[in-house]
Write a structure and sequence with these properties.
Elements: E1 14-17, H1 22-27, E2 37-39, E3 79-83, H2 88-98, E4 103-108, E5 122-126, H3 131-141, E6 145-149, H4 154-157, H5 162-169, H6 173-182, H7 188-201, E7 205-206, H8 230-248, E8 255-258, E9 261-265
Parallel strand pairs: 3-4, 3-6, 4-5, 6-7
Antiparallel strand pairs: 1-2, 8-9
Helix pairs in contact: 6-7
């Protein structure tokens, strides 16, 4: 599978050197073999890459070959990151690295930023409907926790006839099984729930995407220098449960309210246009703004 730069496999990814295994030490008793690199060459299939070594990307121990007594040092398991569009994946990767966790990034082709490569210990491109290939990457790297961050444009996925979608995205068998047999419907919540269940069957836990970047969340309370009028606070309290309902129904994520009356609702296709307010209702026969 080629990446954005024309290479394949895990571009610019390597697990680095490893301690010699016991079989190697026994083969030459007069001289211990030096640790060898385990770099991944261009064009290497993910199926041919050996699992991550203990103490490198997986949680385990690091062998101290310099002294007579081997010492052990705990090493955190890597965090798997499924990256889509936007700044969010970058925030997650930086936060995880700051917390001392290696990061394994599966970048969704056509959505993720290639610059994420600089924040990854292992980086590879995969299709948006290649769930089985995501799982193989994470399991071979020793991941146990996985985060999904970033946007995927649903409108692009459904553009054109079905046969064209299949040719463009080439879904694997795992994605086909989830799409047609595991998901209750095609709403975002249903699809994400089915994906989380499939990851769990492979020993991967989908965790809170904000765990490593809590500073990205808005603080509770007033964010401006001025207190809002009481009427605005009442309108917000009225609109909040309604906004959660339309989000659960996969309709949109925002409503505009004035004097406890809904005057506009954001549609799903408008989420990809940040900065634009929800469309206001217009009279029949009037021209759109």
């Amino acid at each position: 599978m080629s990446d954005a730069s024309g290479g394949g496999g895990f571009p610019h990814a390597a697990w680095g050197g490893r301690p010699a295994c016991p079989g190697e030490l026994g083969a030459r008793p007069t001289r211990a073999r030096q640790p060898r690199g385990l770099g991944v060459r261009e064009g290497t299939s993910v199926d041919s890459i050996p699992p991550a070594l203990p103490g490198r990307l997986t949680g385990g121990t690091v062998l101290n070959m310099s002294g007579a007594d081997n010492q052990t040092e705990a090493s955190p398991a890597p965090l798997g990151l499924i990256a889509g569009e936007g700044e969010f994946p970058r925030l997650v990767a930086r936060g995880a690295r700051a917390a001392g966790r290696p990061v394994v990034i599966v970048a969704l082709r056509g959505s993720a930023d290639p610059a994420l490569r600089t924040l990854a210990d292992v980086f590879c491109w995969r299709g948006v409907v290649q769930l089985g290939r995501w799982i193989r990457v994470f399991r071979r790297a020793g991941c146990r926790d996985v985060v999904m961050a970033g946007r995927v444009r649903k409108s692009d996925m459904f553009a054109g006839p079905r046969w064209l979608q299949w040719l463009r995205y080439v879904p694997d068998l795992t994605s086909i099984r989830v799409w047609y047999f595991r998901a209750r419907d095609r709403r975002n919540d249903s699809l994400l729930g089915a994906v989380a269940d499939e990851l769990a069957r492979s020993g991967l836990t989908l965790i809170d995407s904000t765990r490593y970047c809590p500073e990205a969340l808005a603080a509770e309370g007033v964010l401006t220098p001025f207190e809002p009028p009481r009427q605005v606070v009442d309108d917000a309290a009225f609109a909040w449960p309604l906004a959660k309902q339309i989000a659960a129904l996969d309709i949109g994520q925002a409503v505009a309210v004035k004097e406890r009356e809904i005057i506009a609702v954001e549609a799903s296709e408008e989420i990809d246009r940040p900065g634009r307010p929800p469309r206001s209702p217009r009279r029949r026969g009037s021209r759109p703004p």
